[in-house]
Specification:
The chain has 469 residues and is mainly α. The chain has 19 helices and no strands. Keywords: Cell membrane, Membrane, Transmembrane, Transmembrane helix, Transport.
């Protein structure tokens, strides 16, 4: 293993981790804002459902940008893509840091999200095309650790900055680090293939973005108006129709935005489903737990952010190690170990929902992060390894799009369930309403993780798994 590592050029390593650093900064501010919602509600005099778009719109914009990752990586020089990502991160960050209103803040968040959406897929595109097969798990685990660490570290960072300084410093502090990572990547990045000119499939792009946006809109409406409301079921119905339209057009197109053939691979589909669902819960918890702590336990932003730090550090330490573990033994053991930890964590969260305290949340979030570390980056590496090289770009774009969209849905659904507490108990205190909404959300988490465990159990070793030889 050390021999193959020595054959990897230093410029390749710098480009990979430079892009990972830029993506980290983008994803860090993604969830850093979760703990600022009570502050933003007061400053901008608006509701939680309106303020949560600060995160939901960001994730939605990242997902919409990542949809075109396969196209942009084939059509443009990677250095150009990195420059677009870096410029978007800087301009968006400046708008957010100086925003006089919620709408300006949302605009800045969307611009910064587009920058992140261009940068993040390049991390794994480089790994899968320029790193030897036997090293891919380690590199995916290490680079992915930075990106996976950011969502869970975000509330800690956001809480400290908001409580001690100002929420605007969340953006000012990350800007110089993002710029340094951008410049390192631009200087070192290279690509093994030349760009190929081809028309952009606007029809497919509009349909898939409409599907993503309408589904999120419908989910948000469920929290404020109920699942039977016109504003809930109509957007969801239109989202399904748009998705069907996208699939139909992509299958018939000579230049599909995403090659639908990747979904003919059952092993890829299982990995993708696991990746989507555990990220859905991960981002959902980083929204739910800090808001529960502030609204139900009456803690400040700093405490609600710091309580997730131990879990974040656990993920940071374990992700590279679990990547090496997969390289050595294959995918089956990491998935089953990870599923066991996730089931235990979410079961205890659900059972103890009415007795949650800071120590209990810290302990259970650590358990969740242990399981998450065994599964998240490893399912990405394993899923992409199941595809032939011409389909890697499409697979990478799909994984990264669903990673961000799962977070968007996770935030929207957790916000909707929190709002359900108010709907069901309109005359009770905010604390009682928040506890009920949190309890409903945590039982949903358990149901989703049970589904994850079932899928993981049916993942079979492949000929590339040493455990199957």
């Amino acid at each position: 293993m050390s021999t193959s590592s020595n054959l990897i050029e230093p410029t390749t390593k710098r480009a990979i981790f430079g892009a990972a650093g830029l993506a980290f900064c983008g994803v860090l501010v993604e969830t850093s804002m979760n703990v600022t919602f009570p502050t933003l509600m007061t400053q901008f005099q608006t509701s939680l459902n309106a303020v949560q778009w600060v995160t939901t719109a960001y994730l939605l914009a990242v997902a919409a940008t990542m949809v075109i990752a396969a196209f942009t990586q084939n059509r443009f020089h990677w250095r150009t893509i990195v420059n677009v990502g870096g410029i978007g991160f800087v301009i968006g960050g400046l708008l957010c840091a100086t925003a006089p209103s919620l709408w300006v803040l949302l605009t800045g968040r969307i611009i910064q999200a587009i920058g992140t959406g261009f940068a993040l897929p390049l991390v794994f595109a480089q790994i899968m095309s320029q790193i030897p097969f036997k090293e891919q798990g380690k590199f995916t685990g290490t680079a992915g650790m930075l990106i996976a660490l950011a969502p869970s570290l975000g509330p800690t960072y956001g809480g400290l900055v908001t409580q001690l300084l100002s929420w605007r410093l969340i953006f000012w502090i990350t800007l110089p680090f993002g710029i340094i990572a951008w410049l390192i990547t631009v200087k070192n990045i290279r690509q093994t293939t030349q760009p190929v000119a081809k028309p952009f499939p606007w029809g497919q792009f509009i349909l898939i973005v409409a599907a993503l946006g309408l589904m999120t809109w419908g989910v948000n409406a469920a929290g404020t108006q109920g699942v039977t409301s016109f504003n809930c079921w109509l957007p969801v119905l239109l989202a399904v129709l748009a998705l069907i339209g996208f699939i139909t057009r992509a299958q018939k197109s000579q230049h599909p935005l995403i090659n639908i053939a990747i979904f003919h691979n059952s092993a890829f589909n299982k990995a993708l489903a696991i990746y989507f669902l555990i990220q859905f819960i991960q981002i959902g918890l980083t929204f739910l737990l800090p808001n529960f702590t502030q609204l139900a336990l009456d803690k400040d932003a700093m405490v609600s952010g710091l309580m997730l730090l131990a879990g974040s550090l656990t993920s940071a330490v374990l992700s590279p190690l679990t990547g090496k573990f997969m390289d050595r033994v294959g995918i089956v053991k990491p998935l089953r170990l990870g599923s066991a930890f996730l089931l235990l964590a979410t079961l205890l969260f659900a059972l103890l929902a009415k007795q949650l305290s800071i120590p209990i949340i810290i302990g259970l979030f650590i358990l969740y992060q242990i399981g998450f570390s065994f599964m998240f980056n490893n399912t990405l590496a394993y899923g992409l390894q199941q595809l032939p090289r011409p389909q890697l770009g499409d697979g990478n774009a799909t994984f990264n799009t669903l990673q961000q969209y799962s977070g968007s849905l996770g935030t929207a659904i957790m916000a909707a369930l929190l709002a359900t507490g108010t709907t069901l108990l309109p005359h009770e205190s905010t604390i009682t309403q928040t506890k009920l909404g949190t309890q409903l959300a945590l039982w949903l988490c358990l149901i989703v993780i049970v589904l994850v465990a079932i899928i993981a159990w049916f993942v079979k070793p492949t000929v590339t798994d040493k455990s199957s030889l």
